[in-house]
Amino acid sequence: MNQNSGRIMNGDAGPRKPYLTAIKQQPITVEHQPYTPKHGDQLSDAGTARATLAVSNESPNGTTEDGYAPKHQHQTVVQQHVAYWDRDHDSIIWPHDTYIGCRDFGWGIFLSLIATMFINIGLSYPTVPGILPDPFFRIYVDRLYKAKHGSDSMTYDNQGRYRPQQFEDIFAKYDRGQKGGLDVGDVWIFWNEQRLVFDFFGWTACALEWIATYLLIWPSDGIMKKEDVRSIYDGSIFFKRAEETKRKRAHAAHQKHQTSPGLVEKAKKLL
Q: Of 181, 246, 262, 271, which is most buried with the most CB atoms under 10 A?
């Protein structure tokens, strides 16, 4: 049999590579091909993990809005992921911090309580500096890399760095139709194919993370945009959503204040 039979050419317009990313004999490799750099791509060294930048082909310098990336060069990307909840910058996240953070970006009381329970109970013990569990379920940010679980995209490495190749692979493999993002069906396929054998904790954690991601982004067209998902990894979206919610609440309060006097006058006339 010819060793080249079943060869699948990559989508590159560049020179032929001395390797294959898919073969016809294994259809799943054809259906879900990894990210391969193309001519004109902005992302360099996709296979090299970044300690402090969550980059993508669209954002090769990470989150530059409001100077976010430069401000967080003292933190790994996984630490940046939770920086929003560390309001006093003591590298410890109490359940109360998690709850207030969820409320501030617009979640209701019940959802915020559920999120706090899962986040602090799930992440506290792996990050404690000793053997005994923390009785207050605090999360220790400096050891957050110890809370990494399996059955996800593996975009964070075991030391808390960010791996661009793994992030790009999510969309190269599972963005059906090249929409520029993922819908619920895409995420379902991703979740099913990323599950590792007998990794029940990882399966559950990955599912809950994507549910939370959808609830946070809440896309009007049902598609979670690639850059919104990327900003989850470095935590910048949490600050953005909290600021948006603050403005909406201030606007609603202003509208209520303007409307109230008119209602009072009408009530007086009726009486």
A: 181
